[in-house]
Peptidase A2 domain-containing protein
Amino acid sequence: MSSNKISPSTSEDLLHDPPGYIKPNMQDFQLTDVGMVELKNDISQALEVQYLSPAVFPSTFPVKGHIFGKNHRLMINLACSRQTEKEAPAVNIIFVVDTGSPDTFLSKDAMEALIGKKVENLPSSLYVFIQEEERAIQCHLSPEHSHFADVNVLGMDSITDMGLMLAVNGKTKEFSLNK
């Protein structure tokens, strides 16, 4: 009896994306109700933090967020620092928590704040420590022509890789991320 076992990772598998995979730069979410103006004003006020201001890093869990607006967006401020050999600024970055997004995204402004200066050619992604230095998360640049170009999205990759739990309290319109 011959065994026709196929290697789970052949060289051909490494050349092709799995069926249904959408590259981060091709993703789009209908976040037309949240943009730079809302992040800098209403959402910053609700979270009691100035968007992209210096942050205390590392910070602790749990972190509380607010359910914002008529579309019930889960908005949370997280202290972030770029993974680098040099000294990197820690920044308060407000994210939409989106369990429907497989990836985590940073807006152009957030990425520049983490780099510490305006950059003409931003990288397509950065590795970022979120709240703690335990594990760096790959954060992709929010696609320029998408409906969320100005928004930071905390996707399922961050939630699972960091071992986070999401607890939502609809009565108080608050939620928390905890370890």
Summary: The longest strand covers residues 73-82. The first helix runs from residue 36 to 47. The helical segments are 36-47, 108-115, 156-161.
